[in-house]
Design brief:
The chain is an all-alpha fold and about 140 residues long. Helix content is about 80%, strand content about 0%. The protein is elongated and about 50 Å long.
């Protein structure tokens, strides 16, 4: 089972088994996928920051010029919200379109119940790996 299939299929399956409209799983799936991609972009930026001196200098110089007078919380909102919105818009027009959502849930529904239950594990495992790597890289420069 592919990650995208597990993501959209599990959202549809969970909502439809609870008696709710399963098509709302598309919005949930798009939001989750946007969050995954935003975290993945953050992970890549952190890797570049940790292992490239040129990127670190460029990054610090640009951020200081643009966000020197804002708090970290405000800077995070200013940077993260537009990036998340852009990623969400791209996903809704490509992978998360209505046609692709229907294709993915049809593939998902062909799997056995045991495989359907394992879909959430695939999603959680991927999320935990990304968050763990971000957590490790947060403390990497201190060593």
């Amino acid at each position: 089972m592919k990650f995208i299939e597990a993501l959209y299929g599990s959202q549809y399956y969970e909502l439809s088994t609870n008696g709710k409209d399963g098509m709302k799983g598309r919005v949930n799936g798009n939001l989750l996928l946007s969050a995954f991609l935003t975290l993945f972009i953050l992970l890549v930026l952190m890797l570049l920051y940790c292992f490239s001196i040129n990127f670190e200098q460029f990054f610090l110089e640009k951020f200081h010029n643009y966000f020197a007078y804002f708090s970290g919380k405000t800077t995070g909102k200013i940077v993260a919200i537009p990036i998340f919105a852009l990623i969400y818009f791209i996903i809704t027009k490509t992978v998360g379109s209505q046609e692709n959502f229907i294709k993915n849930i049809n593939k998902f529904m062909k799997h056995t119940d045991l495989e359907k239950q394992k879909a959430n594990r695939i999603i959680i495992k991927t999320f935990m790996i990304i968050v763990f790597l971000i957590f490790i890289l947060t403390f990497f420069e201190g060593f």
